[in-house]
């Protein structure tokens, strides 16, 4: 299960309206080869995290939610951090370290 992420002042996150649950699931769980598997995993993680589920309930989240509201996205971001992390700077891969 993903843990709460600390966000520093330089992190940037833009929420532009509602987002498809399936798109969010694939963003948070890119290691899954199918969208359905990512959706299943995301719903499982949400429903097995009592605090996260309690935070989402007042926003009308249900097991069948198909589109995440900006508030729901914000709750997920606050709990799990951004679904994708972009690092700026030089390449730190071993073959590029000389």
From TrEMBL:
InterPro entries reported for this sequence: DUF4248
Superkingdom to which the source organism belongs: Bacteria
Protein known as: DUF4248 domain-containing protein
Provenance organism: Bacteroides caccae
């Amino acid at each position: 299960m993903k843990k709460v992420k600390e966000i520093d002042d330089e992190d940037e996150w833009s929420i532009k309206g509602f987002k498809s649950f399936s798109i969010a699931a694939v963003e948070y769980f890119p290691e899954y080869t199918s969208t359905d598997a990512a959706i299943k995993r995301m719903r499982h993680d949400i429903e097995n995290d009592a605090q996260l589920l309690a935070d989402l309930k007042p926003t009308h989240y249900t097991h069948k939610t198909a589109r995440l509201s900006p508030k729901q996205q914000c709750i997920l971001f606050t709990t799990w951090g951004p679904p994708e992390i972009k690092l700026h700077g030089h390449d730190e891969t071993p073959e590029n370290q000389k």
